[in-house]
Amino acid sequence: MAAAGRRLSSQGGRGGWSRAFWSGQPRPALAPAVAAKPVPSEVLPFEAIPRSGHSAWLNLYRFWRSNDLQNLHHLMQRNFQNLGPIYREQLGTFDAVNVFLPSDAAQLFQVEGIFPRRMGINSWMAHRTSRNHKCGIFLLNGEQWRSDRLVLNKEVISPAGTRKFLPFLDTVAGDFADFLHRQIRKNTRRSLTVDLYRDLFRFTLEASSYALYGERLGLLEETPKPESQKFIDAVETMLQTTLPLLFLPPGLMRWAKKKLWQEHMEAWDIIFSHAEKCIQNIYQEFCLGKPRKYSGIMAELLLQEEMPLDSIKANITEFTAGGVDTTAIPLLFTLFELARNPHVQTAIREEIKAAESQGSRELSKVLNSMPLLKGAIKETLRLYPVGITVQRYPTRDVVLQNYCVPAGTLCQVGLYALGRSPEVFSDPQRYDPQRWLSKEENSSFKALAFGFGSRQCIGRRLAESEMMLFLVHVLRNFKIDTVSKDDLKTVYGFILMPEKPPLLTFRPTD
């Protein structure tokens, strides 16, 4: 697809399918996106659902042999095109029904029950069991999940809880803009061309840690602390080793992937050690009875005394591990899209100026008056969803695409395929934040990057606020450009990421 086909223009225009299909392989031509097939008058049995292959272990072996796990999002998209809007996937012990249409996501929401379940991650659970750690809500199910979730909602995702940590995120976002200014002053050309991949990790860890623990790590200094960089490296290793272990039972993964298993366990140990140190610092200050002021999410949870300390530790550790890559990568994609769509960038910059000219000092009101900026983040997550699926286990039999799917079956909504389907979005390859300004797009199960229902991502408001405030400070201070206007090739490494980070150029707006 030509670069201009993806760039927003007043005339619009049609783009083709994504260039990135097979990394390093000839790119096969893609068939037109599927339309929903005419439904028979009678509901068809589960066994009639089309399959991507008939041997679960042979399928998994082929995945390993060809390294197709990194292209899982493209493979799902191809399977939908070849098999229709529903198909069954079997890989080793993994057995799921895949759909991508918003109507099917809405059906799954209706049958998720009061204790919605998502797919378990055996390697993560095995680490908790081996190290005698308690699980947080990402891994919990049932009544314990619900109990923890209700307590956490108040401080992490509710509007009142969000307002309290917004100033912390705003401070770090402002410091990042200062960090870029310092780098630019070292350059006689008054600009900075950089691969921002690592710097964004430092920003997201600094911001999330400040919101969680109420303390700064100093990651935006010229020489960040080695232990903080060690933590970031551990998060990357944990994610990279999760994917090849994903479809194996714990006993087999220790034998078949011994080196990967050891790296995975060591990475989680570093993550827990880092989180434990932060937790101990805030807990000690809390026990000393220092003057009461807002000191981050963990301090509020300790003050409430509605959750045992080991449960607070488990959940805060999961937040710490989950708040780095999953925010840094979408920010990188957003900066790239704004760089190659300069008129979108200009429009958002003008929106920021207009919102700030209103004189409100309440950050939540300022952010709520920036619908185009919110739309830009949604548009990024439509094209580049962090997680490529949302999973649910229906609590009762459900009919999807006229097939009867039994209760308890793992069902996945393919977010990558959903976001790029002409069946769902007009001109889907075009980066167009304005599409999200209509109520219809926001209320029809099309924006599912953070999941849906009561099990939607607990860190949603933290991540959205962090990204919005970052973009406010960066766009207020800098114009962003990129030399390459081509689509970014993406790989799946348990989260969706660029195969190669883009080079971005920053120039002061003044």
Automatic annotation (TrEMBL):
EC number(s) per entry: 1.14.15.4
Pfam families: p450
InterPro entries hit by this protein: CYP11_CYP27_families, Cyt_P450, Cyt_P450_CS, Cyt_P450_E_grp-I, Cyt_P450_sf
GO cellular component: a single term: mitochondrial inner membrane
Highest taxon above the source species: Eukaryota
PROSITE patterns assigned: CYTOCHROME_P450
Cellular compartments annotated: Mitochondrion membrane
Keywords linked to the UniProt accession: Heme, Iron, Membrane, Metal-binding, Mitochondrion, Monooxygenase, Oxidoreductase, Steroidogenesis, Transit peptide
UniProt-annotated binding residues for heme: C457
Enzyme class, UniProt record, top EC level: oxidoreductase
Keyword Mitochondrion listed: yes
One biological process term in Gene Ontology: aldosterone biosynthetic process
Listed SUPFAM superfamilies: Cytochrome P450
Needed cofactors: heme
GO-annotated molecular function: corticosterone 18-monooxygenase activity; heme binding; iron ion binding; steroid 11-beta-monooxygenase activity
Family to which this protein belongs: Belongs to the cytochrome P450 family.
PANTHER family, A to Z: CYTOCHROME P450, CYTOCHROME P450 11B2, MITOCHONDRIAL
The name this protein goes by in its record: steroid 11beta-monooxygenase
